[in-house]
Amino acid sequence: MKILIINGPNLNLLGKREPTIYGNQSFEDYLDVLKKQYSSDSIDYYQSNIEGELINAIHSADGEYEGVVLNAGAYTHTSIAIADAIGSVSVPVVEVHLSCILSRESFRHISLIAPKCKGSIMGFGMNSYRLGIESLLF
Q1: Which of the residues 22, 46, 65, 129 is marked catalytic?
Q2: φ, ψ of residue 78 in degrees (nearest 5)
Q3: Does the annotation mark 59 as catalytic?
Q4: What does the alpha-carbon distance between residue 123 and residue 138 come to, in Å, rounded to a whole number?
Q5: Is the pLDDT at 19 greater than 70, yes or no?
Q6: Catalytic residue among 30, 46, 75, 97
Q7: CATH of 2-137 given 3.30.830.10, 3.40.50.2000, 3.40.50.9100, 3.40.1190.20
């Protein structure tokens, strides 16, 4: 299976940013683990802090990938445009979050993208990505 992982704003700082919430491992290091674990699958990665670039990546995934694992970061709670992009493509998108957004600040409790996604996984740290991949494989 060909899968694209897309990370949104500030996720390029994983391993440095608020380690008590997000852990101390960089995403690039974890990506190496995922690629070894799923060596029979193709996993590509894209990260941007810019909303329009994330939308373009979602659009480009349609017909190119069999699934997308998306951590839209704070855009989860604010971006109707990203939700519309997900709703505009046929490739299944799984929403993931490292922390449990429902146990954090109240403004994080609402996901504008969740209704357009195949499913949502949150609160399992970096393993949220693995679970997102698993949900696409089965």
Answers
A1: 22
A2: -130, -15
A3: no
A4: 21
A5: yes
A6: 97
A7: 3.40.50.9100
